[in-house]
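User: Can you predict the 3D structure for this chain?
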Amino acid sequence: PLLYSLSGKVNVTNWYTFTFNGSKNFRNPSFNDLYWQPGGNLDLKSETSLQAELGNQFKYKNFKLNITLYYINIQDMIRWLPNSKGIWSPSNTNKVESYGLESQLDFDKDFGKNKTEFSIGYIYTHSKNLETNQFLAYVPQHKIFGNAKYSYDFAEVFVQGMFNGLTYTTDDEKLRDAIKSYFVVNAGLQLKILKHYQIGFKVNNILDQIYETTAFYPLPKRNYSANLLINF
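Assistant: Here is the predicted structure, written as structure tokens:
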């Protein structure tokens, strides 16, 4: 296939930077797409797409804001989905249109041995099968995430949060089969011991949520983990 791409970056002011890129992309079916057993599909077509992206970065003192808009038009998109027998198998979706927005606000500041970092972001995704005018399975429209971290000398504490919106698990938009929205929070502590050692402790799913990212595969409720890192 004939492929092309064009990209650029413009520093408009000392606080605003504009980036853009556009391309034509191509993807052949992988070895697993064709031959994985069970589920491989030898009749798959190659996937092609046209993509455009506009990025905007704003800076003010210790704050940084990134806002990116994108558009993708895909022909013969290769997707793995459960078939009528419940086996995950790849197939082509003839015409897919996807567009959306990715945004993230970051803040960081040091006070001597004290360091703080904070980020929060929002992602909007609109992906539809143009032939049926229905949303694609396993592509949530809304995601919100955030991270906060504070460290002093050898100790660091952090909190992570993520909201995931309603997610369809079938291409016919059946609400009874959709994964409900959920909000998960994790928190942890990291300690540096001597020069080459670091230990950590983390509490996952603090709110004890019952949630799934894939239908019929619930993830753990509140759980705990510990780690030891040795740098040689």
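The first strand starts at residue 4 and ends at 11. The mean pLDDT is 95.
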